[in-house]
Amino acid sequence: MKTLTLTRPDDWHLHVRNGAVLKTVIAHTAKQFARAIIMPNLKPPVTTVLQAQAYREDILQAIPAGINFTPLMTLYMTAATTVEEIKLAAESSYIHAFKLYPAGATTNSDAGVADIKTIYPQLAALEKYDLPLLIHGEVVDEHCDIFDREREFVDTHLVAITRDFPALRVVLEHVTTLEAVQFVEFAGANIAATITPQHLLFNRNAILAGGIRPHFYCLPILKREQHRLALVKAATSGSSKFFLGTDSAPHLTTLKENACGCAGCYSAHAALELYAQAFETAGALDKLEGFASFYGADFYRLPRNSETVTLLKSAWKVPENYGTGDVSITPLLAGEELNWQLQ
Ligand code: DOR
Ligand code: ZN
Fold this sequence. Notes:
This protein is an alpha/beta fold and 343 residues long. The chain has twelve helices and eleven strands. The protein has an eight-stranded parallel sheet with strand order 2-3-4-5-6-7-8-9. The protein has a three-stranded antiparallel sheet with strand order 1-10-11. Helix 5 (149-164) links the parallel strand 6 (133-135) and strand 7. Helix 3 (83-91) runs parallel beside helix 4 (120-129). It starts with a strand and ends with a strand. (4S)-2,6-dioxohexahydropyrimidine-4-carboxylic acid binds at residues 15, 41, 106-107, 136, 218-219, 249, 263-264. The site of zinc ion has 5 residues, from loops.
């Protein structure tokens, strides 16, 4: 049987929520990944070091016994974030970045930033304390077509942020367009990007052709095929600027299959398998380890993992849903077959 052994990977962009959903999803990630950057967009958002410490404890409590997994915490940037909090975060060994959501851009982003100019003192502090800024890169302007929101953000805001804070370490999260890829490629070594499995595997037809398929709806939304191809090229290029970040974003099935369905694809159940499928189709399985296990750790200045994981080329069927009682989460590719399976 064909196998693929990799250094144990990390997930550099993950939503695990809290309460019953956290308990349902965390084992999926912890079985695959040694570490994950935990997104702070809870209700209410995680804005202080103290809140992040409490959230970290909740996550550690929810990990099944015997599994070695480290949550890497982030704080949610708001107009009210103080320079003192940024200093505290930089001094804490648990906090690895701040997350910038433009207000209204996505799930639980109401507390985000309405005008980036107003957080210039905070960005200066991040640059000074050398704490990465993770960006949801979409403009919120209702007149901007939803398929153009990332490109518009890159042209206006990202150009300005990287010009005005040249030493700031930035991760443009879940890139979805050729323009974002090109921006990151030509920027300095302090600018990197994560790429999700859904943006490598699918284009926007997956959401809309043959019926509306809410489980493919996430933000930034899937784009045209030419953009998917640019993402595959970047992920499989061997460039250390692009690394794995699933953006696995669990929502209850009832809130996805809804007249106003939530944005987010749940991919933690098969994250590495989904990436393996994308890399294999591109004829680039040899590039998966750098993307999944090395470049993110290097960017965050953390040691690379020393354990390994093995994938088997063995087909299996993705369950229709995960969870018990009130919790039902429909995973990406529910009911479909995947080629690779984690041992
Ligand atoms: O699709 C998304 N879901 N995009 C985001 O940026 C947030 C995420 C979520 O939290 O559900
Ligand atoms: Zn996200």
